[in-house]
Design goal:
By secondary structure, this protein is an alpha/beta fold. The chain has one domain. The chain contains five helices and 28 strands. The strands form three sheets. Strands 1-4-7-10-13-16-19-22-25-28 form a ten-stranded parallel sheet, with helices on one face. Strands 2-5-8-11-14-17-20-23-26 form a nine-stranded parallel sheet, with no helix packed on it. The longest helix has 21 residues. The protein is globular, with a radius of gyration of 21 Å. 48% of the residues are buried.
Length: 321
């Protein structure tokens, strides 16, 4: 089975479980229990997805890294006679620079990636193929074939310290961003809209989702079997099932977000423990804060502090209520 098919099977199985958990306290709770939903199904420990570790970028022969580009250009203004900076060297540096900048749908990328145009994809968007990759959106968009397509906008499989910088937008995918087993991922200043799940992490550690606009998805941010995530300073609006959903997630922080217009503003299942939910505005949701459908917070040791909200399950999680 090829990597794309493996990814699709994993994504479909885990997305289904997270979607069901998010709705379990409301309309379809009889279909699956929170405990069953924490099982990763066919995904094993969340790290079974592997992809080629090579960079495919731009024109042929453009595999040089951003560091090579800098070394090739430095000192090149010294005039003729310097064999180290021949016309061939300069042509190679220019080709490498173009390669680092020209991303295309379905590409495996690493190093420095600068979007130079909107990407309208019939399949996956970008697939990260190495650690320390930086994707600069530069105000452009990555648009997919639809929420039911099983396609992903930016996929990060087991690669650490990947950064996605906005401004820019990712829309119309099953998951705008999918992390599997990655450590130290960061995304900021991106509009994430009209996906089934905005940012989806499974088996991930130390992910940071900060200062994004996350709207019109089924779930804004979903964490499955992950730890030490930071979800803060995001604007989340109109995400149908939940703004944030944690399934079997530990020692993570949800803070200073605006979460409006979902069935569950913030939902944590019974297997999610030692998380801190603080200083959020969680308003105009069916249930603003939902700790495992009413599980007392001392059972799973989650802390709810200084949240401005109107309704919670169990009661008492909102300021003055």
């Amino acid at each position: 089975m090829n990597h794309s098919k493996v990814k699709e099977h994993i994504l479909v199985a885990v997305v289904a479980s997270v979607l069901l958990v998010s709705a379990s306290g409301l309309t379809i709770g009889h279909l699956i229990s929170p405990v069953d939903a924490t099982k990763p199904g066919n995904s094993g420990n969340g790290n079974s997805l592997t992809l080629p570790q090579s960079t495919v970028a731009g024109p042929a022969g453009g595999g040089s890294s951003a560091g090579d580009i800098g070394n090739g250009i430095g000192g090149s203004g010294s005039g003729g006679g310097a064999s180290d900076f021949s016309a061939l060297d300069m042509q190679g540096a220019a080709t490498a620079a173009a390669a680092a900048s020209n991303a295309a749908c379905g590409q495996v990328v690493s190093g420095l990636v600068n979007l130079t145009a909107n990407l309208n994809c019939s399949g996956d968007g970008l697939i990260v193929g190495g650690p320390n990759t930086v994707i600069n959106m530069n105000g452009f968009s990555i648009r997919g074939p639809g929420q039911e397509s099983s396609k992903v906008g930016i996929m990060v499989p087991n690669d650490d310290n990947v950064v996605v910088n906005g401004p820019g937008s990712i829309s119309n995918f099953q998951a705008a961003v999918l992390l599997t087993g990655a450590n130290g991922f960061k995304i900021n200043s991106v509009i994430i809209s009209n996906n089934q799940i905005g940012t989806f992490m499974t088996g991930a550690e130390n992910a940071q989702v900060q200062q994004n606009i996350i709207q019109g998805n089924s779930i804004g941010v979903a964490s499955h079997s992950s730890s030490s995530a930071t979800i803060d300073s995001n604007l989340m609006n109109g995400n149908l099932l939940a703004g944030v959903t944690f399934v079997n997630t530990q020692q993570s922080n949800i803070g200073m977000n605006n979460v409006i217009g979902s069935q569950n503003g913030v939902f944590l299942d019974g297997q999610s423990s030692q998380n801190t939910i603080s200083a959020n505005n969680v308003l105009e949701n069916v249930i603003d804060l939902n700790n495992a459908n009413g599980l007392p917070t001392n059972i799973n040791a989650n802390q709810y502090v200084d949240n401005n909200c109107e309704s919670s399950n169990p009661s008492g999680l909102c300021i003055g209520r």
